[in-house]
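Notebook entry, cofactor series.
This is the third protein in the set we're modelling with a bound small molecule. For this one the ligand is calcium ion. I'm keeping the input format identical across the series so the outputs can be compared line by line later. Sequence and SMILES below, as received.
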Amino acid sequence: MSLTAKKIYSVILLTAMLCGLFSTVFLAQAAQAPTFTVNNTMAAAPGETVDVAITVNSSAGFCAGEFTVTYDKDVLEPVSVTKGSAAGTYFVGNATYTANKMFFATIDTDLINAAGTVATLTFRVKDHVVLYNGTLDLEVGTIVGNEAEGYGYKDVSCVAQDGIFSAARSIDVPELDDPEQINTLPVVQMGSEFVLSSPRTNDLSITEVAKNFSESLVTKFLDPVGNELPAAKKLTTGSVIELYSNDTLKNTITVSVKGDVNGDDTFDGFDAYLAGLLDKGVLTAYEIGAAANDAADVNEDGAVDEADFEQLESNGLNQ
Ligand SMILES: [Ca+2]
Ligand SMILES: [Ca+2]
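Returned structure with ligand:
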């Protein structure tokens, strides 16, 4: 236990004893085991700052408690821990308790038995995050209430409910024909790959796509064979967006443009031919890659079949 934690622990013990002295009037109300809950987040965007409330149910009846919340430090940055309306008079919070834990403790001389927020944890979603769905793990350390017989303190049982934190990146790009019209494209996981799937009507120039990433994040744009693309170019099916943080490659996103299966930025008979091979099973989605397979699914029903082939063939004839 760190020195800080020891100090907090001593304060909690002392206050817990005071709690027993001062709160006999609340004895009859100290009934239920308190339930502490980490509230789930909606999908936050990378770069966003998000508040997560730790709440307690009503009629809980506790005087003091210490809490740690463990998070994925590759995804979240700690910002702050703040006291909530259902915390006791005394509150300490440490947003950087360890590399992946926030800590807070609250103490009072009276029973805390109102429902509400004990603490609000604020995180920032790191810039390189593409898709994330993970747990915020709540552990309750020492928790005390007032002693049933009168003075002193006792450990009380409680329930700790973990929360889910979700984060997802989307990419905003303008339409080719109407640059005022901005479309938001989700990044979707397909097998082990993250794929940005776009209709051919969007402007996927690197200049436009790059606007979606913060300046602190190093992005590289590669063509389908792995050569870095200059900023003047546009992304086609098979192009890759690499996201680096501190010189480490953190994530890659592969681009899919509906209808351009081979990634040559034209929509012609060869794309139809590849869709035909996929339809007949001569070529598999694994062999052609998730992004090209997605590009061949032009009617967006999740499978590449004859309908896609026919639509692509008529596109090819119309070029
Ligand atoms: Ca093509
Ligand atoms: Ca289809």
